[in-house]
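QA checklist item 7 of 12: single-chain prediction sanity check.
[x] sequence parsed
[x] length recorded as 166
[x] structure emitted
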Amino acid sequence: MKKFVISLCLLLGVSLPLCAQPLPEPEGKVILSIAGKIGKSQDGKVARFDLSQLQQLDSKTFYFQTRWTDTAHEYHGPKLSALLEAVEAKGDIIRMTALNDYSVDIDRAFIQQYDPILAWQQDGRKLSVREKGPLWLLLPIHEFPHLNEGESSAKMIWQLRDIEIR
């Protein structure tokens, strides 16, 4: 089917990005929605992800103590840059919104510089809402300690539910 779509696009002179396959539908509970300036979604407007889909993205593991935890923990999740690539994000401002409607704007350049993750796992266990899950944006404070202070630490939004690309 994919070869047919590509052949049809080439035959009609349509650019390949316009003929790109939509994202697969989530099979489990949707835990993250992405809208705004994106090139790929399920319906042309919003990209919805369940945990299984997020687990398929390029990921990283961090080990450190945050300002909000008593001890060091191992956190694992997809790189935010991989998620933005998966939806073909085109904007420079990434607005992230939590379950409680707290939101934070992050510049694309900041994401490229520090390569944060969307942690879904802490010490081998799925993060619950009580533990700042289902997704917690974490910065590599073990590599860049200054990110654990002030304005940068405010970017580490937990209970993430929506992303808007501007």
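[x] summary fact logged: The longest strand covers residues 30-36.
[ ] second reviewer sign-off
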